[in-house]
Structures are given as C-alpha cells and as structure tokens.
Amino acid sequence: MHRHRRALAATALVTALVGGTAGWVSGDAQEPVTGPPPGSAAWRADGSLGRALPDPGTTEPGAVARFFASLTGEQRERLVRRHPLVVGNLDGAPVALRYAANARAVRATHDPRFAGLTAPGRRILAFDPRGRGQVAEVFGELAAARRVSVVVPGSDIDAAGFDRARDRYGTPAGMARSLRAATGERTAVIAWAGYTTPRGIGPAAATGKLAEAGAGRLVRLTEGLAAVGAEKPVLFCHSYGSVVCGLAAHEVNASDIVVFGSPGMRASRVADLRTDARVWAAKDQDDWIAKVPHVEFAGLGHGQDPAAASFGALRVPADDARGHTGYFAPGTDSLRAFAAIARGEAGTARAEAVR
pLDDT digit string (tens) for 236-294? Predict the structure, then answer.
C-alpha cells in the first residue's frame, strides 16, 4: 500500500510538472505522422516500368536496395520525376537519388516554412511535408564515411524549426554541424527530425505515444543505412529523443547510444534496453531536466535517470555544459567526448570521463 501511495504521488507530480502547473510551458496534443510517404498510392499504381514497384509500406530496405540496383539510370531518374516524395523517403534507395528527389519535393511545396531546405549543397535524406513537417539532412559524405552518427532531437523540433539560428546547439542541424566539426570532419552526421515531436512540456512529452511512433521510424532509418552499405551509426539522443532511442534500442542497428538531457529511456537499467550497443549518458549540473521526476506509472513519466549510477550507462562528462541545449557547444567536455565516441574511440571518451 505504501508503495502504491508513493507511485500515485509521483504520478501526480509528473502530471503537475508537465502540465504546466509548476510554471513550465504547457504543450498541445500531437498526433504522430506514421505510415508510408505521401504519394504511395500513385507509386503502387505506376506500371511504367512494366513491373511492380516495391510497396513503400511493407518492403524491407534491403529489398528496396536490390530493386534500385536492378534499374537503369534512366529508369531511376524517371521514378524521381514521377514520385519524388516516395523515392526521397524510401529507406534503402540510393542516397544520391534521395537527395535529388527531396530537392525536387521541397521545391514543389512552395511552402515558405521549408524554403531554407532548398539552399544549394544541402543533402536532404528525407522530407515529409505532412503535419509540422519532418526532415533529415546529411552533413558529410554518407556513402564514403567510415563512421556515421545520427542526432535524434527532442521536443519542439520539426521541419520549420530544424535549424534555428537563435538556438544554435539546440537543433538537430546545429548539433550535427558542431559534432562533425569536432571530429575533424572525419564522420558523416545525419540530423534526423524524422518523427512527430511533442510541443512544449505538456502531456505529450510525459507519455510514450509519440516516442513509440518515432522508434519505429528510427529503426527503419538504421536498416536503410545498412542496406546502402553505411556503417552502424552512433545515436546521439537529446531530451525526449532519448525516450525514442530507449524504445528503439532492442531493434535499432547502432554501435553506440548516447543520451543527454534525458527524462528517461523507459527502462530501469541498461540491461532492460536489450541492446548490444554501448550506452552512454550525460547531464549537466544546471539542466532543467533534473527537475523532472524519474518515475514511470500509468503511462506517465519515462523511468530512471540514465545519468544515475544505478542505471549502468557509461558516463559522459558534462559539468561545463550549460542548460538543456549546451552539450554541443564548442570547447565543452561533453562535445569532446561525443566526438571521440563518434570517431569510434570509446577508450578516449572513457578517459575524458575520469579525468
């Protein structure tokens, strides 16, 4: 009975905090964007190649890769022209073809929210204009990179807020640029805003609904990378993004999972994640996420603090980071350790942690 009362009290506290009664910003409800990309019905009905096209909703990325390998260059270009939103979002399709398809798809929207994505030289790996918009961008040469990282962001990130100048290291594009620079440009980094994130700190951020939908999309992203010959990525999971990574951990194809500013991973300890990936955690001293109760009850809250010793994650130093979005700021211990992990130098990152 005593344990039950404590759980109810913790749940009430979580609800109060994320609902805004503790003075934080309340968020609005969000419905996840799921399923195959826009235009899939027209793609399935297309008989112009004299053969069935792979179903975007059911075909595994490996089979998608084999399908495109069987096409001529002219056939590939025809599919880009006819179905840019499908080709651009089809995990397993050739990377360069996805860049070309997404450049065409973004321009075709004529939507000012996405205008910045059309700048020359941008490598857009995925683009979905539905809802608030989803996007993934590659920094570096993905096809040739020996090491690959993926930045998985938290709340308030969408296609329009993917690259905000006023919050340089709090957006996936800003984190990706900083990480790539810190590695000496020896890695490729994917800034992945590929799921519907919570808005503000409200009920959606306190539950796993959006994270569950995002986890499936993240798993498919990593399967698509494997299908085109990319290395196993390192996942850098910020804030609510760490909930996504926690739920995806048992299926995701990753070498390392790094969480920072995390409200929890829906697990009590690393073993509960059922992953072979190394799991790392960082939390700086003045990150407001420390005020979030690390409980999970009746669907609210995300469980144990991954930065707690009892969780069992490898420690990433972050004492000189500032606030909730300062982990990728140049010169910080956290960024140096992140760069070492991204380069595959786990021993160096551990040394940073015990200095």
Answer: 999 999 999 999 999 999 999 999 999 999 999 999 999 999 999 999 999 999 888 87
Per-residue pLDDT tens for 171-215? 999 999 999 999 999 999 999 999 999 987 778 888 889 999 999
Distance CA 99, CA 6 (A): 52
* Max CA separation in the chain (angstroms): 69
d(C-alpha 307, C-alpha 326), whole Å: 16
Quote the Cα angle for 326-305-194, to 5°.
60
| pLDDT at residue 21, as a whole number | 28
Stated length of the chain: 355
Q: How confident is the prediction for the chain on average, in pLDDT?
A: 90
Q: Rounded distance, CA 206 to CA 18, Å? A: 6
SS3 content of the chain, % helix, strand, coil (to 5): 40, 10, 45
Alpha helices, H only, 125-232:
172-182, 203-206, 209-227
Which run of H or of E encompasses 127? Answer: strand 123-128
Cβ atoms 148, 304 nearer than 8 A: no
Tell me the three state secondary structure of residue 137. strand
How large is the C-alpha radius of gyration of the chain?
20
Count CA atoms closer than 13 A to 39's CA, side-chain side: 20
Residues 6+ apart with CB under 8 A from 332: 318, 320, 321, 326
Residue in the structure block whose two tokens are 């539905």: 130
CB 311 within 8 A of CB 305: yes
The strand pair at 256-260 and 234-238 is best described as parallel
Residue 138: enclosing H or E segment and its boundaries?
strand 134-139
237-251 burial: b if 16+ Cβ within 10 Å, else e = bbbbbbbbbbbbbeb
- Pair 95, 145: CB distance under 8 Å: no
Phi, psi of 48 (to 5 degrees): -65, -20
Q: How far apart are CA 316 and CA 3, in angstroms?
A: 33
Coil vs helix vs strand at 93: coil
Is there a contact between 147 and 231 (Cβ–Cβ < 8 Å)? Answer: yes
Q: How far apart are CA 158 and CA 129, in angstroms?
A: 10
